[in-house]
Amino acid sequence: MTATYGKGRPARAGPSFFSPLRNLTRTVASGIRPFVAPLPRFSGPASPHSCRAGVLLEQMAALPFADLDEITGGATALVLAPHADDESLGCGGLIAEANARGLPPAVAVLTDGSMSHPSSRSHPPPRLRALRRAEARAAVAALGVGSERLHFLDLPDGRAPCEGPGVEEAAARVADLARAYKVGTIFTTWECDPHTDHVAAHVIARTAARLAGARVVSYPVWGWALPRRTRLPVASVAGARLDTTRHMPAKRRAIAAHESQHSGLIADDPQGFRLPTSLLSAVDRPFEVFLFER
Fold first, then answer.
1. Count: domains in the chain
2. How far apart are CA 83 and CA 35, in angstroms?
């Protein structure tokens, strides 16, 4: 089945949609990285513009397959990752496939990653920041992309802006990258990913796309971990799956490169972040999901 892009901007994604998401408190949800907060509960009767997370996730897993060019629009892609590791978890197969076709994407990491282990004495923020950068370089190399196409915006981990001048400033930098690489599509995290930085990345990507004349395509990361009964302010999803079977070994190597995020490498912070096996299993499938604007 052929996948197509919708036209225009959906009314549901305006300020009234993002407001409850960006007002999340910074609490630590069990099994999820620091600064992840549960999505707000939508009280009252079900709305025609809302849906249970479980229904949406089933829709995503059953989306039609599409060719890479149908998903990217046939032009260079820019992957905007909230943190170093999100590019591999959500887009590793796409990055590898685009590179294999001679059209390597650019990758931009929004935050500096310095707060994944906030109590570590062996890895204070400057050392952890440098480690996260090195891991990101190794990850994109595993996917076939040179480090010259990897960019770090270094916004504060856990505090990426969702509104105001900070969004405009970050979006201008992303738009500059999009123009420099002649990008047709900016890939970023799904607006319902339950993490404040992931919501911020989506807001920033939309603003940057408007500035650069590009389209936005979303990919879920933490969305796969949503409790199935969570009600989201989205009625349905539209998009496509990309068959990434042949790139699974590379994707696994890329995820493994982010050692600080899934292993005991940093052992002196008992409350430090570690990717849960449930999420790693959710992204270890021979396809990736990409959601289109409607």
1. 1
2. 12
